[in-house]
Prior knowledge:
By secondary structure, the chain is mainly alpha-helical. About 55% of the residues lie in helices and about 5% in strands.
Amino acid sequence: ELVLSYLQEVNKPLTVFHLRWSEPALLTTQVLLTTPAFWYLKYEWSRKMVEELFLKAQVEMDTSVIKSFDDAYGGGYSGRRWRNTAMRGKLDNLWEKLHGQKPSSNDADADNDKNHKIDLKRFIAALKANKVGISDELAQSIFESIDVSHSGFITKAEMEKLLQTLDATDFDSITDLANKPELLKLCLTRKVLECLISNEGLQFVDM
Length: 207
């Protein structure tokens, strides 16, 4: 529906997709990504139209797709592109990274394993093991913001709730973070978790 709505907006027919798609099939992400760049050019789509179509349809272009359009249109594009930054779908990966670290072997740790909970000690150990170089104070602040029940443990349900909050927050529109400490903490939390998932590590100045 997003694609069809945009086509109406720019007054373009569906002809460009004719060898990849036909009614009543759905006009999918795969159709958009596999339609050759030169077909858009052939059917008189401007580069801006193509990029806005992908943006509004929430389709992420990888480097090979971007290069094909650069080659077809004879240059790059500096406008906005869709980036799949959704965090909730990465819950299992994130939880494995956090829960997989075992700082010590004792009855308390065994109990945490059994109940799928993470305490502050394990949280900090997981960050350090994955080269996310923040202070213990900042790690504790992030931990406490996830631990909404104030139990001293993070559950997977609490982590999922945080990821939902991150996904629902429009970080691009946030300004004046210096005077918005809660939003600043949310931004830092997102950055820390993204780096934890990505295996890239992190080094930055604390709040």
